[in-house]
Amino acid sequence: MNAQNAKLTQDTLFGTSQKTGLEYVLKVDPDRLLSTSYSAMGQKPKAAPYGGWEAPVYGGWQDRTLRGHSLGHYLSALSGFYSATGSTEAKEKLDYTVSEIKKLQRKDGFFDAIPSTPFDQVFTGNFTANRFDLNGWWVPWYAIHKIYAGLIDAYTLGQNKDALEIVTKMSDWAVKGLKNLSDEQFQLILTCEHGGMCKAMADMYEITGNKEYLALAERFVHQEIVKPLIKQVDKLQGYHANTQMPKIIGLAKLYELTGKAEYRTACEFFFKTVTENRSYAIGGNSKGEHFGLQFDEPLERDTCETCNTYNMLELTEHLFAWNKTSYYADYYETALYNHILASQDPDSGAKTYFIGMLPGFFKIYGDFNNAWWCCTGTGMENPERYGRFIAKDYENTIYINLFIPCTFETDDGWKIQISGNFPYEQKTTIKVLSEGKNKKTLKIRSPKWIEKNKTEDGYITLSSDLKNSDTFEYELPMKLNTRRTRDRSGNFSIFYGPVLLAADLGTKGMPYDIVENQLCYMTQPGVKISVITADPLEPSKWIDLKDNSKLIFETKSEASEKNVSYTLKPFYAIHHTRYSTYFNTGTGKEDLRANKYADITTDFIEPGRQQSEVEHHGKYSETEMGYIPEVDRNYRQITGKEGSITYRIKFDAKSPKLVLSFWGKDKGSITINADSKEISTIKLNGDKGNELYDVEILMPEDLIQAKAKKKTTAAFNVILNCKEECSLKLCEIRAVK
User: Fold this and answer.
1) pLDDT band at residue 677 using 50, 70 and 90 as cut-offs
2) pLDDT at 154
3) How does DSSP assign 572-594, residue by residue?
4) Which of 35, 585, 672, 692 could form a disulfide linkage to 49, CB 3.0–4.6 angstroms apart?
């Protein structure tokens, strides 16, 4: 658990972004982040809390908040920035925050931003759990894990000894509370998203040597997910993506501590199937936060949750330490440049949640005061992590993985400078500034986008006996290349070396893009782009470089069906404008269905998917969630005759329609109510095929007008109740006009 040892060069691409990220974190008021912890621990807050997921009440319910998760990320970010930049202000804010936590911590070790109620119930052994709910609370172990991780970072990176004392007491509280649960009960806990508790306990064992923490870490291994991975079987389809990634990072840490080969097998297989079979051009993954079909790349608004890539990069660091091949570093470069760097607004430092792949869409950033999303938390950390993987020293071999200007120091005293202006300059220079104690070999990655210098591990040896003042210049010739989508639909993306290029489509019709609710524009249409008729395999014939200093390109008008010329820029430089990272959209069945609803949808819900349900104030009685592989949809289904499903849905006041989408093979019936008024009954006989079947209902005009009054929209609680046989799987709900 070493401190970061690469210091970025200022006024460079990543150095400037890191500075913006630090400024953002330093603006955060620790007293506001601590506010709900004061309340939870029975004390009077010093300041009002932030809003959104950190508010005392969110979506109408106290137990539907993620209070405390941002506090943990904040601790990690301050610690990381202090380690990466030496910021004294970051250190001062870190020490202050830890000191306040120390004052608030209960004698039994508990500390959080919510009461201990859900944990106390778990400790009795009599509790309820589903994917995102534990005893009626929204993923409490997930939120408290962030505090564990933040305190561990405060100790290891931030050099705060009190943080270790606090997190040790918290760990002892967890050990004591969970020790009497059976293995079956413990696995039931893990049904609910629990973040990286496995990793936190493994870290605590590494720091303290207390074997109780290692034993607890292994109990936090979720067998439902890990067992198939050990057998190298991909059963990820339908699962919430970011729930799984911290579990695998914890497993990676356990392999390093225990040497159990099955843990390594599971981690390596997970990485391979996610990066090769389930990822987009930017290196991100998931749609609607969930894993879909293998090789599928649906171009939608809610793709590529930024948290996922944050976690995938951390997993990559572990796997590279075991394997030391460019296979891992190539992925890291793709995801770092094209997702992580692209996810921060260079002006305000605001963070993205999803990065939509829908052609003609735009990035959506979080409001500073009220958008305390999970990706706001990881977004605070991302810039301080830029230097973590640039160079690594393993077994007296220094690996240059990335070509980011910095100064890198080894634990035994070697100091190496990486300079240049990559990717604007097609070379990098490595110079030894000072010699360390042990003899070193220096290797540099030969990226997958360079055709020459291919070796077995993907690295070129620059020196097998490094000396002081040695200087090496390494050429990085870049050219245009394309990446075809994994679903072979005809969609493709354009790269210049490792840099993803996106078409800048302007701001026409764009709403304000810094918001409180990350789902607020999920019904906004994109901008249609012309099909590319030129050969995607020979991009240099129809794309010209116009500005080398900014990597701005232009497509030839004759290359498109409608004779349109597009300006292409690095995706990390695309902000506050519409864009397209994909071209030549296919016309498969899913595309046709999406196009049908694209411009007429006023509200959209995906039952069984966490954020979609939370944002629409979901309430349920006698229901279950699941996943239908045949149609790649999650669902929520009423299971009892007293069961019900309720969502808050917004309709267009002039032409209000409700579209409910079910699996065509379902049999059963349900009633639909708007508030307390019954408006329709749906009965299906299971004869609609192995696909989604849409049922359209016209909302009563008198009901809409009474609600809308002079507004253009009307919001209702739409309630579905059981009618006779309750076996209909509700997959999608749309309000359309």
Assistant:
1) confident
2) 98
3) GG--SSEEES-BS----HHHHHH
4) 35
